[in-house]
Fold each of these.
Amino acid sequence: MSIAFTAGKKNFPTADTTDSATFCAPVSTLCHTSPGNRNPVWTDSGHDGPVQARYRLTFPAVKPRIIRKRGGSRNPYAAGGRFSNMGTKKSKRTQPVGRTGDDGSTRADPTRIQTKIIDDVFTDAVEMVKPRFELDYSAYLDRLWQANPEIHRLLRQSEDLEAAREAIYTYLEKAERKIFEIDNDFHILEKATVRESIRAFKSIIGPINEHRTGVSALGHLWKLARPEEGSTGKDVSVGFLLEFINLFRGVAGQSNIYFETKEAKKGIPDFLLKEGKLASETRTEILDDMGATVSKYLKRYPSGLDPDVQNWRRENKSRILKYFKADEADWKNPSWQLRHVIRDAKPLFDLIELTSGQKEAVEKAVAHHIPFGITPYYLSLMDRQLAIGYDHAVRAQVIPPPEYVEMMAEHRKDRSVIFDFMGEHDTSPIDLITRRYPGIAILKPFNTCSQICVYCQRNWEIDEVLDPKAMASTEQIESAIAWLKAHRSIGDILITGGDPCVMKDESFRRLLARVAAIEHVYRIRIGTRTPVVLPMRWTERLADILAEFHDPGRREVCVVTHVEHPYEITPDTLEAVQNIRRRGISIYNQQVFTIENSRRYESAKLRLDLRQVGIDPYYTFNMKGKEETRRYMVPIARILQERKEEARLLPGLDRTDEPVFNVPKLGKNHLRSWQDHRLVMILPDGSRVYEFHPWEKNIHPTPPYNYIDVPIYDYLEELASRGENLRDYRTIWFYY
Ligand code: SF4
């Protein structure tokens, strides 16, 4: 590894799993990530600058897709689920359709009713299973042109691509002017959708964006409208067509977002026409309805604080203790937990039910020495039987999917380069330090954790769970401290790794003392996942160590953790968090927004449960970049939709997190700042390409970054396979 965390560590005390005070800390800002390294592009200018992408975007050939039945498994591990290639998991709540091969492929059963996507909803249709393109292509095309016959006419009449561009720009400009006229009958809010849709469409057909991405969505549309030009009809996916069906409707003021309710149809709602108590009562009825909807959804996501879940987990704990011939005192001892971290397949297979695909992936991970480990405590959060099915996020955190194992095995030797999506090699001025902001630096003294998260951002540098070579050498640490001393604008130090709370108490204390002694350091953040995966690590002694350096008015010490799902929050987490907070130390959460916590109100429930135990939501990270964990990814449009339609319904103190996209080498782009990103292209497979502007835009000239997202269609299809009603997500297409 080019950043030599593991080389030559001698003098600084090292992790020792036989001693009670060893162990780790996760990485707050960075330790969590994402999948999908799909030819990211740095562009050399902003909207209008010179046009020379350093790399030209390429996109994978569009593959025929197998469709799945609506109302199929809610369970990601069940047939048809995203994790179906781990094998088949049957759930009482699910009715899997199709068969799943252990090779990871989904093989639909041709005798069953299959699903096709028409517009923004899945509808059932009795059809033989065919690749997606063959299935409904003409139906989708019909819908595309019905969505905006005028655009179809213009494309058909255009003799070449440039004529089509001219015609569409003229049409869009007229449409834009129309919404500013007094005499139009759009709903006032629909006008906003029209404006946004026009803005997106203009950007997509811009020659500069075609040049930068190497793709012309307009060219595909033009060919589709003129079959005589030789289009095979298979150049673009259904996901591509659905993007444009919705965009065409948006441009025409027919998104239908606002005309669904009687209230909206009436125009001015009743409560605004009334006054005083009468108005308040009418408004209250509306708010009660909204509140009831929220409550209905929240009930779908039990936390580990629910009495039923606590009972199941007591049984889990007994079973695990019996297996290891241990007792309650052992369970509470962090050293015992660390000595019994599950690193092999057998104990896992003996203790919980796994699909055949999961078993195969774990065996392969162990055989190829891919970092793998689960604390007994975290194992107790998994449902013993697959049929229970609430533990999807817990399993997904530590049980690697097959393609992850394959990619990690294939790139064992060059992983430090291949998987460094955030470009930390280029943002590390000295060993152990990463810097992306003027006032903040990351210090990584300890390069391992008490267990290994599958979608760890640092999977390119963590060698193994509880790696005995994980501690940086005294020389490395002293050099890093000297570097921090010399850079006086850095006042906020994030100590992460790896997980620094897996270090021995005294090693950890000495490190904190060295950092706290730097005169200009006014905050030390500890990035650790221990409150979630090893809460018993939070002894009085460890909390006291933090408190020793927490000096209000002079220096703050705080903890940043990573809870992904309400199901991870337990009475033990509550106790650990309160132990920290009793010392006046704050604790914040960084969630990664993945397929496992992105269903309707799932993250809202997480925020509420976090606050219940004393953790403040801090960041919600979009997953990005890493192909080996692509299956976890959620489109950016969904994170924006969640923020607007779900998080917004919570009280302000519950939704304190900021949704962000981490731009490689640069750092966080706030997704709510619409002026800092824009849609520039839709690729034939339905992926959106976004241009992200650097956080220091307007301060320092740094080029934007182009990012290829996962197709919305693919995400919706996955949700459908988990039993979601896609009408709940129908507005997703209008978030750009
Ligand atoms: S493996 Fe360690 S560093 Fe990576 S996400 Fe998990 S806790 Fe953070």
Amino acid sequence: MLALTYVKENTFSLMEKPKPVLLDPTDAIVRVTLASICTSDLHIKHGSVPRAVPGITVGHEMVGVVESVGSGVTRVRPGDRVAVNVETFCGTCFFCRHGWVNNCTDPNGGWALGCRINGGQAEYVRVPFADQGLTPIPAEVTDRQALFAGDILATGFWAARIAEIGPEDTVLILGAGPTGLCTLLCVLLRRPAHVIICEKDPLRLRFVREHYPQVTAVPPESVRETVSRLSAHGGADRVLEVAGGEETFQLAWQCARPNAVVTVVALYDRPQTLPLPEMYGKNLTFQTGGVDGCDVAQILSLIAAGELDTTPLITHTYPLRDIMRAYELFEGRKDGVVKVAVDCTPEAAK
Ligand SMILES: [Zn+2]
Ligand SMILES: [Zn+2]
């Protein structure tokens, strides 16, 4: 089968590999129908994910059809159409039982697919702990609609959930990249009084204004003024930092009102400064971390109900055989790309 492989720093290669097989009773083999490229894949390519194993197949955002399951798998069956979760988790350890699946203590726990074990920018993928890692897709939801449910949409949903957003809140989101947009959609589900999104890229700002006119989209230069104008208590009630830029962590706490919740979703390249003397008396609550991807079934039912739609984010589609071109486009942020869908069906691999 064709599989996009992390060969070494700065080198990905589309190569022929053997089809994966079941290794553990809790495994499933999934025939991938649609995959996507994530910014984290670029981080692997650039060598900034030290735990990524050279030789692995990359890709951790995909949907497909279950091909076979191990004897211990009870929740999915061959033939089921499924969304694959970015995180591998056992479902039984202390952290999993509390819903903190990002901290699963299994040796394979956390982000393993397409990083430490073979992922899904390929025709087939082996998914460990398939009962936890696979979620059946409702019949009325298409593969394109479900494509982001296990990764960036799960991240946005988790961020909006832990931010504890109420109907009177002014919510500020920093960053309108793919994860920022998914966070925006999940924040909108909670119907706060005002939503402001801050983004420096004019194309991304335009995308928000075209698709989500109810949202105030501003560049960083005017975010402070906009937040103080639209909020009743001198700052945003809830701030979600999804940008991970040089200045965005500082902007996040500075734009927050006293006693606000600041949720940090972004992954930074460098340590950030927490200037406690300057923020003394502001009594902020910080929430940080990586997605607990355990809400995929709820996300898929919201999609089925027509309350969540990420299909406008898919601006380009490529067949698997042309995935290198898809990377070139995504990495170079060419042609107004937001997200790329990669068709992994047998015809697209020929
Ligand atoms: Zn990702
Ligand atoms: Zn666990």
